[in-house]
Amino acid sequence: MDTTAIRQNFPILGQKINACDLVYLDNAATTQKPKEVIEAISNFYSQNNANIHRGVHTLSRKATELFEQSRKTIGQHFGLTNDQQIVFTSGTTASINIVAQGLAKHYLKPGDEIILSMLEHHSNILPWQMWAEEHGGYLKVIPLLMDHSLDYNTLEKLISTKTKLIAVTHVSNSLGLITDIEKVKAIANQHGIPWLLDGAQSAPHMPVNLLELDPDFFVCSAHKMYGPTGSGLLYLNDRWLKELPIAKTGGGTIKTVSFEKTEYVDGALRFEPGTPNIADVIAFAQAIKYMDGIGMQEIFNHEQYLVQYAQQLMAELPEIEMYGIQKHKAGVISFNVKNQHAFDVGTLMDKYGIALRTGHHCTQPLMKQLGVQGTIRVSFAVYNTKLEIDYFIEKLKKVIKMLS
Amino acid sequence: MSIEEIEKEIIEEFDFFGDDWESKYEHLIELGKSLPLISADLKTDERIIQGCQSRVWLNANYDDGEMIYTADSDAIITKGMIALLIRVLSHQKPKDVLQANLTFIDQIGLKEHLSPTRANGLLSMVNQMKKEALKSI
Description:
Strand content of chain A: 15-25%
Largest sheet of chain B: 3 strands, antiparallel
CATH architecture of chain B: Alpha-Beta Complex
CATH superfamily of the largest domain in chain A: Type I PLP-dependent aspartate aminotransferase-like (Major domain)
Structural class of chain A: alpha/beta
Strand order of the largest sheet of chain A: 4-10-9-8-7-5-6
CATH class of chain B: Alpha Beta
Low-confidence stretches of chain B: none
Number of domains of chain B: 1
Largest sheet of chain A: 7 strands, mixed
Mean pLDDT of chain B: 88
Number of strands of chain A: 17
Strand content of chain B: 5-15%
Strand order of the largest sheet of chain B: 1-2-3
Largest interface: A-B, 15 and 15 residues
Oligomer: heterodimer
CATH topology of the largest domain in chain A: Aspartate Aminotransferase, domain 2
Low-confidence stretches of chain A: none
Number of strands of chain B: 3
Number of domains of chain A: 2
Distance between the termini of chain A: 39 Å
CATH class of the largest domain in chain A: Alpha Beta
Number of helices of chain B: 6
Order of helices and strands of chain B: HHEEEHHHH
């Protein structure tokens, strides 16, 4: 993989921060965008902008084709033949809320249980917690083992006749741990329980085939995979595409409307009221094409190399404590400098142009489980290099000295 | 000394570092590492100013016409900033605390630490210090 050529394609990477080269290691928060994605947005507005689905004029037809072709492209990327199973939303958080509010309408009843895990991001906790509080439901949590991986044996024990959904992350945004999907799927299928997979941190970093994985729901965000913010998707399997009630409604979702009765369309459009962020959906598809141009397996291999290299170097530093160390994990490392506040480390690293994230990473239950206020997190993407990791380690040693 | 005079002193001290941010931050860290600025029994939940990441504890007293502040943080750089702020605002009349605009922070190149992002709680601490001064007018 030619990282030099790749880096040149990302305009923002040439920047200096505090007179140092930008070393961007906060990709789990958001990724940088290649030229193609940035241009897709400006090209849409300068050449093809019109509202979609209803017009008969040329621009409207062009815009509609670009929009629906984007759905096809993204569907194919995830291994699907029916692109209607891809619903466009404003992101992972919105997608999970759509599922939670939809299921709350008749599928979930008071006294029902939803199983989450200790690793979950707040966006895969709060929509369920809101349902539980408003409707008298219960949340059960899959605990962690000593090595911070999920305790799948306990998952089995958490299942009851009241369990209606299992919602888990595919890759932990704080620790980079990869959930064993086959185990979750086996348990879910055995008991006939629908399951939701939060792919916000997996879709950008590894091949994801939804036909093979076959969850009931899958969610992810464009901005974490080289696409724009404000765009994401909700995958629904055949059953839920037909059965999931909608919580938000409006124009663009209907066959006929009268004050007495309204008939809704089938397919993805039922879930997409109002004018969508058309340009960003097209840019999302461009980001997908960009990743396919490199290859998801190649991206995964590259980030694997980086994360193992970084973990190895960090293991040599006695002042560093790492969390969730595994051979098989995604490109995310959470750590702390012993006796130092993450905030101090992050502030000083920023002075060297190194962008990383400090704090609870929207996973407060996990932080409490780890016994920390927060961690320092580095997370990799396709444009990061071994040299950047060497620089990161060099400056980390310097910062540790400054603070001690 | 008046607030302005103290600020001028601090600006001169930091001028010494020039563009060398590493030395400037080492100095700030040294300030932060000096003895805790608040007694342990005062580090209660009522005195916490919750930043998103680092926590700040502030204690304010009004004594003989002056505001007396003590404070602490669990992050060293924040503590260093606190040391500077207390040096400027403690033992001053409430009216003067209220009117202080703390431009010295920008002049010594540390303005980012008072940004409104909730990360370090410092801006909230300064606001709280002024609220306490207002109470004592």
